[in-house]
Amino acid sequence: MKEFIFTILDFLAQLGYLGIALGLMIEIIPSEIVLGYGGYMISQGHLNYFGAIIAGTIGGTLAQVFLYWAGYYGGRPFLEKYGKYVLIKKKHIDVAELWFRRYGAGVIFTARFIPVVRHAISIPAGIAKMPISKFILYTVAAIVPWTVLFLYLGEVLGSNWAHIKEYAQPYVMPLIIAAVVIGAIYFLIQKTRKTTE
């Protein structure tokens, strides 16, 4: 498996910024690994940090837009049938739908930092016909700090970038907590607005 990952990463590295964007779009390899390797490429002088952030943000956002469209046009039956090909199981869709119904559109931002529903949350947004502009806004707002963090860690780790998951743990938890707090504040504001209308 490691050999397969390194083969894919080597191929993506040859594509430069496009490789980062494609790696995040197709999601064969977890985004942390793709971005960590991107950070390593920055440390080697092959990529520019800000260019890599832009590529990572575009690739990560497009991946979620595809899932949004799948939900919008295909609905749940389509995703239950074909979701396995993009590593999304029925239970992921169940949890994502529950969260979306309970917490509303703001969960699009918060869920990006939660492993189980990170990608699946785009599906109920599409099924619910959430405005695409709002969906993209919340998605980009979450993807930028995630991209910045893992590119930075990959750059700092240099040739040890493959250990990024272990190294990132102390940084990821505060990010998750901050996202949950922001999501809770958003939910309370929305609930207060509804009761005062």
From TrEMBL:
Keywords per UniProt: Membrane, Transmembrane, Transmembrane helix
Transmembrane segments annotated in the record for this chain? 7-29, 49-71, 135-152, 172-189
Coiled coil residues, start to end: none
Keyword flag Cell membrane: no
Using the record's annotation, list all stretches that form the VTT domain: 29-155
Q: Which domain of life is it from?
A: Bacteria
Fetch the Pfam families from UniProt. Answer: VTT_dom
For this protein, the record's InterPro entries field holds:
DedA_domain, VTT_dom
The reply on keyword Transmembrane is: yes
Family of the protein in this entry? Belongs to the DedA family.
Q: What is this protein called?
A: DedA family protein
**Organism annotation:** Neobacillus paridis
